[in-house]
Structure formats: structure tokens, C-alpha cells
Specification:
The chain has 326 residues and is mainly beta. Helix content is 5%, strand content 48%. Residues 1-17 and 239-247 have low confidence and may be disordered.
Length: 326
């Protein structure tokens, strides 16, 4: 009997998924994005290196958003921040709020639940974590690799964060699943817009997250670049022509800013420039004169914490970029 079991194990082994590879060199994710305030574009998450947190070697994931403003016909880019993750043979973890949370568990069975962290922390009574439930599990073949997947949904319709998605090894969420608590297929948990109190929705809109487009890494693993309905870095400009944001001509630092000064520079020569700062609902709350080809220091001491749009313009051109005051 022992020999028969060994023989069966040998036959089955080639068809079983191997331990997961998370965040291989060159790992890059793209997500479509349509925001408020007239912005259309995409989100890009890039593996940029390693760091050690609590003796654990973690992957650093830089989260960027690239936009085209339909109202001002300008391009902009925005750094949401850096996330820190690591993985074992079955789980992917994320560091948030001074602890590690489970993002995905590919060994979980239907009915299993766990908490996931929202990318925005609320210091008031609103939830900054959510709870997801595994509805089904399975395997699929991608690029000649057998990969495990889990289908999950939001556990409680009143919670603020979660997934309703099909989540695959190496890639993360790839498809939004029907649910009465809509969340997209973003790498990180997303805002649950069905939550009763819409915690913070008026001040943090647009929120981070959107539907998956594609993933690739340096090993030539690609999904689903060859089958996506649009290019990974497609931006809709109203003409149907793909646009790639390479250089928007404006730099803001530090971003996010935690002090009372913001440094802004544009890389072209222009006369009669002015700057304008708008809050996320489109109200102009600050303005002044602006000099080209030098770093301008803008006071932000009177700005409440939140997301803002910074616009530099004259009679000939206009550039916009979002920034965060923490």
C-alpha cells in the first residue's frame, strides 16, 4: 500500500501548483482609473526594492496614478505612497498601522475569513480595516504555470474596506465579481461604497483603487497584456487615442507633505505664470504668482489635511498635479 501511495504522489506532483512566487523582479501592475474632478487615467504599482520591517524582509511597492484632466486638457501624475508586503508559501501579507495583515491566503477553504487593511487610516470611529470571506477556490493555468486562486467577497455590507474579486497567485485580484458590496479588482482592499455612513467619502474622494488591467515582470510573465481591451498605460483623452504619460513637466515635493511648505518646479520657461490650489470638490482655496525654471515654495500651513489639485497656468498652457497634505 505504501508503494502505491508513493507512486500516486509521484504521478500527481507535476500537476500540483508549486509554492507561490510573489513580487518577482520587475513586477508591475496596472489598473484603469476614472476619478472625480474630470480625471481619467490609470494606476501603476511597481516593485522598487526591499526593506526590513520587524526583522522581516519586505517588498516595497510604489503606487502612482497618471491622469488626463478633461476640463483643463492637462496631464498629471500623483504618488499615492509606498506599500510593504511579503509572502510565504501560501499567504501574502501587508504592513499597515504598525502591524502585518493577511492580504491573500491561497490555502484557505470556502468559508474562511480574515481582516484586511484599508489604504487610508481614519482616526475617528470609521473602520480602517475590513473582513473578507472566501466563497470558492481553484487552480488555473497562466503562462504554462498552475496557479491557485480564491474568490472572495466582503463579509459585512456595512464595513468600509474589502474585495469582491477573483485573486490569483503572483498577480493578486484580476476580476471583479458580482456582489451587493461593489469593490474593484485592485491590489489592495478598496472602499466599499455601499457602506451606510460612507466614512470620509466627502473628503477623501477620489479614493485609491480600480479594476485590474495587466501584470508583467522581468521573467516575461504577462497577464493579460495580450488580451486586454486597452493597453496597460492607456489614458482616455476624449479622442480615443492612447496616451502615455512620460513627463508632465511639473514636480511637487515632498508629496505627501507633512510640513507647512510645498516645493513646486516646472521644467520649461514661461512668463506670467500663476498657481491655483483646489480642494477635491473643486473650490479654489489659494493662488499666487509662480516662477518657471526654479523651485517655488508654496505655503500650506492654512490647508487642512486632505487631497488637493495644484495648477500652474498662463494664457498659453496649464499643468495640473495632485498632492496630499498630511
Amino acid at each position: 500500500m505504501k508503494n502505491i501511495l508513493l507512486f500516486l504522489s509521484f504521478l500527481l506532483f507535476p500537476f500540483l501548483p508549486s509554492a507561490q512566487t510573489w513580487c518577482a523582479p520587475g513586477s508591475t501592475w496596472y489598473y484603469g482609473q476614472v476619478n472625480g474632478f474630470g480625471f481619467d487615467g490609470y494606476l501603476k504599482i511597481t516593485y522598487v526594492g526591499d526593506t526590513i520591517i520587524n526583522t522581516i524582509t519586505c517588498k516595497k511597492l510604489l503606487r502612482n496614478e497618471y491622469d488626463y484632466n478633461q476640463m483643463t486638457s492637462t496631464y498629471s501624475n500623483f504618488v499615492w505612497g509606498t506599500s510593504y508586503t511579503y509572502a510565504d508559501s501560501n499567504k501574502v501579507y501587508m504592513y499597515a498601522y504598525k502591524q502585518f495583515y493577511t492580504l491573500y491566503d491561497f490555502s484557505a477553504l470556502p468559508g474562511a475569513t480574515w481582516k484586511v487593511p484599508g489604504p487610508i487610516y481614519y482616526s475617528n470611529a470609521c473602520d480602517s480595516t475590513g473582513k473578507i470571506r472566501v466563497d470558492s477556490v481553484g487552480t488555473m493555468m497562466i503562462n504554462s504555470q498552475h496557479l491557485r486562486y480564491i474568490c472572495v467577497s466582503v463579509f459585512d455590507s456595512s464595513q468600509q474596506w474589502g474585495y469582491s474579486a477573483k485573486i490569483v497567485e503572483k498577480i493578486g485580484p484580476i476580476k471583479t465579481l458580482p456582489s451587493n458590496t461593489p469593490c474593484g479588482s485592485y491590489l489592495l482592499p478598496e472602499k466599499n461604497y455601499m457602506a451606510a455612513n460612507h466614512c470620509g467619502i466627502a473628503v477623501d474622494q477620489p479614493t485609491e483603487g480600480s479594476n485590474f488591467r495587466c501584470y508583467h515582470d522581468s521573467s516575461s510573465f504577462n497577464y493579460p497584456t495580450d488580451t486586454a481591451s486597452v493597453d496597460c498605460d492607456y489614458i482616455y483623452t476624449g479622442t480615443g487615442v492612447p496616451e502615455i504619460t512620460k513627463n508632465v513637466g511639473i514636480k511637487i515635493f515632498p508629496n505627501p507633505t507633512t510640513n507647512n511648505l510645498l516645493n513646486v518646479k516646472i521644467n520649461f520657461q514661461a512668463n506670467d505664470l500663476t498657481y491655483h490650489i483646489y480642494n477635491i470638490v473643486g473650490q479654489e482655496i489659494a493662488n499666487g504668482n509662480f516662477n518657471s525654471n526654479e523651485t517655488n515654495t508654496i505655503p500650506t500651513d492654512k490647508l487642512p489635511c486632505g487631497i488637493y489639485v495644484f495648477i500652474v497656468k498662463n494664457n498659453e498652457k496649464q499643468l495640473a498635479l495632485k498632492f496630499v497634505k498630511e
